[in-house]
## 1
Amino acid sequence: MPLTLTHMPPLHWAVAGTGIAAVTLCLLFLANRRLGISTGFEDMCSFVTALPYFRRSSVRSGRQWRLPFVAGLLIGGFLSAVLSTGWRPIWDLGMLDQALALGPIGKLAWMFVGGLFIGFGTRLAGGCTSGHGIFGLSNFELPSLITTISFMAGGIATTQLLYRVVFHWQG
Amino acid sequence: MMTLLYVLLGTAFGFILSRSGAADYNYIQAMFLFERFQLYGIIGTAVAVTAPGVWLIKRRGRTAAGRSIEIELKPLHRGNILGGLLFGVGWSIAGMCPGPIFVNIGEGKVYALAALAGALVGAGVFGAIYGQIQQWFRLPPLALGTGDG
């Protein structure tokens, strides 16, 4: 199955997984930081709201590294586009386009709703795929195991319901 | 200097996510439909390689520059389960988790901007109601401070 961006097959999973591990270990060994991306949402919120939750010391100390790291994620995605098919605005949504022919406004609304769940859920759980799923599991932390099982269950249930029941997807 | 290091590590991370399928809507759905091994292989390999690495770094006890290793542990509470479930629903709907939201914006996927807007609003709502839900979910008390030092 080709990637939506490059129209080429993806990296082998073992290569990608090892690369992710290398970055995670570099963050810890070089900078004493535990990988975690969703806390970056708090860092961004902390610039526009004075709510106590966003004035925690952990948020303020994390901004120094998490915001540059997140800027890197943007650059990495941009370079990936430039070095393959060239950067261009993309609206393609693969399987969702086949199941539901949403227009631009519909896609933005769909993604905004998904984002609400992501933002609220990761804050309530205290982390996402990176902080709980990769770093937390690698460090044998019980809250991370519980959270990882929970978000995999939530994702599997939702996609199975959407594609197998609502969309009658024939894979 | 350290800021540059974070940008470079983020760039490498983002490039890998972009090219691996982790930032691709179809691959996320194929994972949750049990139709592709790709994402399970990526996460499994990442954990299998990171775990012994973290163990070795903790055993050494010091960073490359000689500072003592301090890993901030995440608290255990009822929010791990409900928050995880809600995040999973969002990961399925958007086809991206937090890292890939940023990667997809960089790639030029316009709709990822809406996912980011939603995530920031979702995080803001959580921050606004923290005081009301803190006790039931047994969330930790807020440690306020400037983060200096």
Note: The radius of gyration of chain B is 18 Å.
## 2
Amino acid sequence: MKRFIVGVVTVSAAALVGCSGGTGDSVPTFEVDALWPMPLEYPTILGPVSGVTVAPDGNIIIVTRQDGFSSINEINSVTGTGQCCTPSQAVLEYRPDGSLVRQWGGPDMGYPWPVRPHGIGIDPDGNIWIGGGVAPPAGGRGGRGGRGGGRGGGGAAGPPPEPTFDTHILKFSRTGQHLMTIGEVGGTPDSHGTSFGGAAGFAFDAAANEVFVADGYANHRVAVLDVSTGELKRFWGAYGNPPDDAAMSPYSPGGAPAQQFGSVTCVEIVDDLVYVCDRENDRIQVFEKDGTFVTEGLVAPQTLGRGSVFDVAASPDGDFLYVADGMNERVHILDRDGLTFRTSFGVGGRYPSHFRELGSVATDAAGNVYTAEDGQGRRVQKFVNTGMGPVMMEHQGAVYPATALGETR
Amino acid sequence: MNGRRKVILVGGLFALFAVLGVAQARLDALVQTVQAPMFEVDPYWPKPIPNGWIYGTVIGVTVDAQDNVYIVHRGVTGDEANAEGDQPLAACCTSAPPVLQFDPEGNLVRAWGGPVESGEYVWPNSNHGLGIDQMGNVWIGGNGGGDSHVLKFTQDGQYLGTYGEPGQGRDSNSMTHFSQVADIEFDFEANEAYFADGYGNKRVAVVDIDSGDILRYWGAYGNRPMDNPTFEGNRTAGVGWSSEQYQEQQFRGPVHCAEPSNDGLVYVCDRQNNRVQVFQTDGTYVREGYFAPATLGDGATWDLTFSPDPEQTYFYLVDGKNARIRIINRQTMQEVSTLGTGGRYPGQFQAIHSIDSDSQGNLYVTETYEGRRLHKFVYMGVGNAARHQGAAWPTGR
């Protein structure tokens, strides 16, 4: 019980014990590893981390943004005002021990890098897919993290003009060789067309050679493409309806369920079912691979603003779903069967197991959880699976190692 | 160069690599070690705070005689304060009260401060810096508009008094008020407080601890301070400016620290001139040191604290522009090692701002801007340290 001896937390934690479920069934338990991954060499820093995925060999791959840095005091070795810091390249691959394998990618490298890369996936051939998250001005992400600073200038020949927002998807080899651009660069988002609208996540069906795209911030659909050609094969909206890009009324807790998606920020395939994040509507919708609606579940349904369901990952056995919630700054653990809430971990802030703009989650084969923070969080964090245990608290807060909370030094 | 610095070739590079746990560290950074204080970051200190509270910019830190650690921060607004207001958007987050006290184990002990409707005192528009006197009372400055005063509280937040007059403008020769005091330190033997004064004024102000009367003040090199001095150097990126070339006769400011040592000297941070000037307690100029002298923008010399040995052999200089704590030999004013690097993980800084030491030599540092943390570095003794200790993660990692 040492974990709970955290000053005043003791009181509130005790009051919350046993609030959840009441089934007594065990759930996965976690401890943050504050010293993962290994530090980058001075003066290199990570930008906002807008996607994380785990490769079949267990390596962890993240995509980072190279916009949003403060011109006042952050990338001073770029602006010529100081010795630190310089952004890393956009994509970083880490071994399970946290050591860096390679980094690659970014603007001005001969391919149309997204204005704001968002979402990363690895396909059955081991290739890397990257989307982009800049939506039109009315897209609901206004007012956050200015751009500018950090993007290199173009050469004399002049690169193509930057797209207004991200309507394409990029495919690379594992080592960063550009393989394919899918969708029109600088196009117009259209939930019925071949231009994407801020593609935010990917899932793969190896048998069918299909990629499922969470599309996205401007579009309001799941789009299914051929992995090899990028050809658009089918798409659907909420409840399997034809998608509609018309403006929607804001989510209201307890109101009539929206018949269209808000921001579609994730797609995951577990046991041949397709799980989709409908972020502002605080819900996960579940489909057959052909788009037939199966069921849905609400997560933290009182959440307003940007919503509660940013990203989803499954435990290796498929029994649990981990929901990254960047509005409440925690990871929800759900039973996959029934989409019922069991417990959550994490809390707002800048320390280990604290989150600022939590946006992505992934799992490895050992059941460890990796989270990525966009905006001013700018970390990938590792949560070590410490086995199954009973639900002790509805909201666990920061999951520091028990030794770290009991020891003095 | 520094005569005390020992450069030792290390044969077992690979072993050192593993011991330091530094990924991709440059070979040349590891070839030499130096005799210097060594540290390890404690990634789990302080412990999480309750109530969904979150830190804003952590703009001051001080340690009391019992090694309790106090910080002052500014809270959060906008989409980081989604749990605030009559109709909160989400369960996270709510600003913690501005002053937080931690015990040596990192437990939150007290939380207090902020504006009061009663009008009993004027909380600073932008609180900045705090110090704790020998009575255990907490002094707080501010660098916002009209922050021309310093507040004094008991350590549990009971208001005791106001020094200077709130709402006044810049006057570096005023005997009645300050202008945007950045930090407060004490000479207990003389019963005097030293104000780094500050963002508005361009001076060090020495104040009687009991009465708050301004006893004396001075500017750079001990000169009479000027409110709007002109400077020789063209401080612009790309023109090769170096603060060391010009020896500017006024503080460029902000005057960001004023720290009395135990041998009768006062160390003053002239942040945007990238220098520390040393004075006798009467304001007589003694010497100066420049650090990363080409640094522009916010400057390189933000705060400092002394090593706790009787000789105060070293001082630890916070450089928030270059994301390092510089370990400086106090006699030679030369850097012997550095601690920290850029980033958002333990031992990494976004904008390191303030520093203090406890009786054991452990360091506590805070970050402003988007860093917003309080870090603890555990003192590991003086020994063969890396020239750049980096994030200083515990050995074995």
Note: The first helix of chain A runs from residue 9 to 16.
